[in-house]
Amino acid sequence: MHVLHSINKTIYETFFFSILSYLVNNRSIMASQQQNREELEERARLGETVIPGGTGGKRRSRGGQTRKQQLGSEGYQEMGTKGGQTRKEQMGREGYQEMGRKGGLSTMDKSGEQRAAEEGIDIDESKFRND
Fold first, then answer.
1. How far is CA 50 from CA 3, 40, 42, 58, 100, in A?
2. What is the signed CA dihedral for 10, 27, 52, 64, rounded to 10 degrees?
3. Cβ-count burial of 126 within 10 angstroms (0-12 exposed, 13-18 middle, 19+ buried)?
4. What is the pLDDT of residues 110-129, one digit of tens each?
5. What secondary structure letter does DSSP report for 110?
6. Nearest-CA neighbor of 71 among 62, 80, 63?
7. Where are the domains of the chain?
8. Global pTM?
9. Which tens digit of pLDDT belongs to each residue from 29-88?
């Protein structure tokens, strides 16, 4: 009986100390979170934009160079204008304008051609020349 009592006492002590340890750790975590919250609120009161759970003002590196950095400003600008000019040159001015009319009629569920037919708008596709 004495042995059983000492085993139960040891189990209870272990259980008690583990719960006590958990509560102390949890309390320090909660205090730390409260302190962080108070710091964010103070920074917000001073007019700073704060985001809970954010990086704390530190930038996260995205790595590598952007396309603009690789090509330089002039090369990047040239790359942006090439596509439209080439298409316009291929189709001619009138064809390009007709295609714009057709594209302007398109919606999420209907093509420009379908909408033009429904609304009786004539689109002259003969102007879509391919040289």
1. 60, 6, 10, 12, 44
2. -50
3. exposed
4. 887 787 888 887 776 666 66
5. S
6. 80
7. 1-48, 85-131
8. 0.26
9. 777 878 888 888 888 888 887 777 766 666 555 556 676 666 666 666 665 555 555 666
